[in-house]
Amino acid sequence: MSNIIECINLSHVYPEGFTAIKGINLKVKEGEVVAILGQNGSGKTTLVKHFNGLLKPTNGTVSINGIDTAKQTVFNLSSYAGYVFQNPNHQLFATSVLAELEFGPKNQGLSNDEIEARVKETADFFQLHSIINEHPLRLSFPLRKIVAIASIYAMQPSIFILDEPTTGQDHGGAEKIRKFLRKLQDDEKTVILVTHDMPLVAEIADRVIAMWSSEIIKIANPREFFFDLKTMEKTKLQQPQATALSNRLQKRVLNEGITLTVQETIKALEKVVNQQIN
Amino acid sequence: MTKEIIRIENLTYQYAHTDKPALVDINLSINKGEYLAIIGPCGAGKTSLALSLNGIVPHMTVGEMRGKVLVDGIDTTQTQVRDLAHIVGMVFDNPEYQLSQSTVLSEMAIGLENIGIPRDEMLKRIVVALEIVGLSGLEERSPLALSGGQQQRLAIAAALSMYPKVLVLDEPTSNLDPMGKEEVFAVTARLNQEKQMTVVIVEHEVEVIASYADRVIVLDKGQIVNSGNVNDIFSDIDSLDGIGVRSPQVTAIASGLEKKGYHFENLPVTLDGADATFSDWLKQGKALA
Predict the structure, then answer these.
(1) ipTM value for the complex
(2) C-alpha–C-alpha distance, residues A44 and A157, integer Å
(3) What pLDDT, on the 0 to 100 scale, is given for residue B286?
(4) For chain A, what is the mean pLDDT?
(5) Which of A141, A172, A266 lies nearest to residue B256, judging by beta carbons?
(6) Is A199 on the interface with B (CB under 8 A)?
(7) What is the pLDDT of residues B193-207, one digit of tens each?
(8) What is the number of domains present in chain B?
(9) Confidence of residue B285 (pLDDT cuts 50, 70, 90)
(10) Cβ under 8 Å to A: B residues 37-96
(11) Closest to A170 (Cβ–Cβ): which among B207, B244, B274?
């Protein structure tokens, strides 16, 4: 599979002189779900804003689908890479959910029939029909965020960049977002997930990129990453509770390897118990 | 001496221009020194309930209130918000909304100046409050140059400097990174354990609530639908799930095993508890029973 995102020696220094990211080398394959982890201020958002051209490298290069972003406008790149802001208030501006969903496809120059089909599919999936005529800013924060995600989905980009999609969501909202992410995975979309939600990462991500102090300090699959206690400690990130439990039990009673999710842990415990029975 | 610090009687509150009440017939008694967590899905009324504790509801909101909220014996409807600030300190979800001054020191001083605390006393209170939240030495920093966790701890310190009897925190960690979350929870736990501060916290992080809270109340559609200690509340995983509230992962693991026919005396709700429960269960071959 080809690399849909490629950063070579990427650095970004803000005009006031702050180096937000430095020496980033990263390749993302088409259809991968990549989680970018790190504390606030470690450079995560600066990095992903390069993937749709919102920021241009001050050093090094970023290519999206083989195209050097330095030479492209955000508008041109938006068909490839859709960016969902952490705060939906920074993204939503239309006076109804419907207008919000139509905006992207209209700008892509689609026909009215195509626009209608996109809006319908999006509203179906995110269950937005009952609020389709509401003003986005009158919706609750979690729902507003779902609308922000839906409006990017309506544009059908190849790459989805999601900044903290589950923050501020309750259990129900977070489940909706999980379902959405699985759909993207099935549709072989590329997903860049910036998040502090470790259980989500454990369930969904193909690869984890850990940032600390403007640099990438670890690239690994989630199992390897959440088991690397040294990096976890250095980045002050925590394992999901299910992983922490299996980690503790492993020292004494479990030899089923580290588990990442609730379901995996249930299976591992059950297997040990069945071995006892037999 | 009564142990009760907050008493809510038949509280119903409906915001203007809405078709149903945000809070429906709430009855709740909170004791001094309690660490109480309020959980529930979005829109359940958690924030409205929190705001009713320091008089923001009904004084600064438009709507209709029935029933009574007594804080340290004082009826909130009869008392102004600024006079309730001595009793109930409030911390919101976004620290940036709460911080307005150019230095940490002036941020701390402004509330105290407003209520006419003399300078010497003011400085004394500031030193103590910053010490408690671990921000001593940052007095001259701009609040905006602090990390999210530090900002939120500053907001807590500012509330503490008023010497409140109750600290109410409305999703204080929802905008913080993992480090900031841990810092803020640690401060609330220390205040509760060492200073016997009454803490009321609205929070989604159930794993953390399970290790800190003495009692949990569950809100749904404006009503208290359950109330009890963390074991009672989180073990009832299906009821929580039914209203869209998650239980700690370790509880979900035990519950998942129960659904496969295994049995546990009690479902664990914390990592330590789960470690003990499962180690015991596996070693003793209790699963065979």
Answers:
(1) 0.91
(2) 21
(3) 58
(4) 93
(5) A266
(6) yes
(7) 999 999 999 999 999
(8) 1
(9) low
(10) 41-43
(11) B244
Domain that holds residue B51: 4-247
Q: Could you tell me how many residues make up chain B?
A: 289
Nearest-CB residue to B41 (from A171, A242, A263): A171
Q: Give SS3 for A212.
A: strand
Nearest CB neighbour to A265, from listed B176, B253, B262? B253
Check which CATH number belongs to the domain holding B36 and give it: 3.40.50.300
CA–CA dist B182, B128 (Å, integer): 21
B176 in reach of chain A (CB within 8 A): yes
> CB-based contact (8 Å) between B264 and chain A?
no
Quick check: is B273 in a domain?
A: no
| Per-residue pLDDT, A118 | 97
Percentage of chain B beyond pLDDT 70 is: 97
Q: Is B220 part of any domain?
A: yes
pTM: 0.91
Give the separation between CA B43 and CA A144, rounded to whole angstroms: 13
Q: Give me the pLDDT at residue B1, please.
A: 53
Six token digits for residue A246 = 């299996």
> What is the average per-residue pLDDT within B242-250?
95
Confidence of residue B255 (pLDDT cuts 50, 70, 90): very high
Q: Determine contact: A251 vs chain B, CB below 8 A.
A: no
Residue B275 maps to a domain? no
Q: Which chain A residue has its CA at the smallest distance from B40's CA?
A: A170
Per DSSP, the three-state class of B137 is: coil
From chain A, pick out residues whose CB is under 8 angstroms from the CB of B275. Answer: 245, 248-249
Q: Is the dihedral of CA B85, B122, B152, A147 positive or negative?
A: positive
| Token couple for B261 | 């026919």
Instruction: Give residue limits of the domains in chain A.
Output: 240-278
**Residue B269 domain-assigned (yes or no):** no
Q: What letter does residue B39 receive in the DSSP assignment?
A: E
